[in-house]
Amino acid sequence: MVKNDEAIEDLLKGNLKVIQKKGGYRFSIDAVLLADFTRVKKKDVIADLGTGCGLIPLILSRKAMQSRICGIELDAAAAEMAARSIRLNKLSEKISIAQADVRAIRALYTAESFDLVTTNPPYGRPDSGRINPTKEVAEARHEIAGSLDDFLAAAVYLLKYGGRLSLVYPARRLADLMEGLRKRGIEPKRLRTVHSRLGEGAKLVLLEGIKGGGVEMEVMRPLYIYDNNGEYTDEVEAMYS
Q1: pLDDT-derived band of residue 125, with 50, 70 and 90 as boundaries?
Q2: What integer pLDDT is reported at residue 137 of this predicted model?
Q3: Could you tell me how far CA 81 lies from the centroid of its own chain?
Q4: What are the tens digits of pLDDT across the range 27-45?
Q5: Residue 158: Cβ within 10 Å count
Q6: Crossing angle for the helix pair 55-63 and 76-88, nearest 10 degrees?
């Protein structure tokens, strides 16, 4: 079940377990924040684009026990590891993992067959910043195997009219995100900025959009990750419990 270069880590105070590489790419707090932010309805059919180790499907499975979730991941090794995490948690009847490219989503699924899509898309432009030499890390962080627009195009194809898209993205690229959403017919409806500490600028944004939704957006109170002592704030600590 677990390979020599892997470890099993507890999540949600041991209620879930996730297989991780001991070195290399590991899930970040971004995924935990997104899973907490995402609103799930009782019988949602959910797709998680770029699922990585399957963390978001695992957490969402605890928020709506009757939902069905599909994690879609390009990297074959990551997809295989995610599938083992699903089996480890005995959630195979609820969660499936597909090794696939979001740019070829039309070959895999029927249009407008999902109620909710989540994604933590790659955010670095290929021509900006240092590209990590590890392929899976580079693809997860930079728009090498799919741009923001590729992920938005896949989301709008999968979503039913009135379906929700929930994502996390760097605050510095909020203008790109807003433009891309509206171009694809997804109206931003909820926005929450994420800050490292009180008094610092936003690092991330959490955003929910609705396909075909009406104009007007709720701007939520800011989320702070660390307190003055460098520890997780009570709100973030609760996300791990």
Answers
A1: low
A2: 47
A3: 17
A4: 889 999 999 999 999 999 9
A5: 29
A6: 30
Question: Which of 20-24, 160-164, 176-180 is predicted with the least confidence, judged by mean pLDDT?
Answer: 20-24
pLDDT at 138 (0 to 100) = 40
Q: Please report the domains of the chain, with CATH numbers, ordered by start residue.
A: 6-239 (3.40.50.150)
* Spatial contact of 11 and 18, defined as CB atoms under 8 Å apart: yes
Buried-state track 160-188, b at ≥16 Cβ within 10 A, e below 16:
eeebbbbbbbbeeebebbbebbeebebbb
What is the pLDDT averaged over residues 128-150?
A: 57
pTM: 0.89
Count of all residues that appear for the chain in the document: 241
SS3 readout for the chain? CCCCCEEEEEECCCCEEEEEECCCCCCCHHHHHHHHHCCCCCCCEEEEECCCCCHHHHHHHHHCCCCEEEEEECCHHHHHHHHHHHHHCCCCCCEEEEECCHHHHHHCCCCCCEEEEEECCCCECCCCCCCCCCHHHHHHHECCCCCHHHHHHHHHHHEEEEEEEEEEEEHHHHHHHHHHHHHCCEEEEEEEEEECCCCCCEEEEEEEEEECCCCCCEECCCEECECCCCCECHHHHHHCC
Cα separation, 68 vs 116, in Å, equals: 10
Give the per-residue pLDDT at 177: 97
Question: Are 49 and 24 contacting, i.e. CB atoms less than 8 angstroms apart?
Answer: no
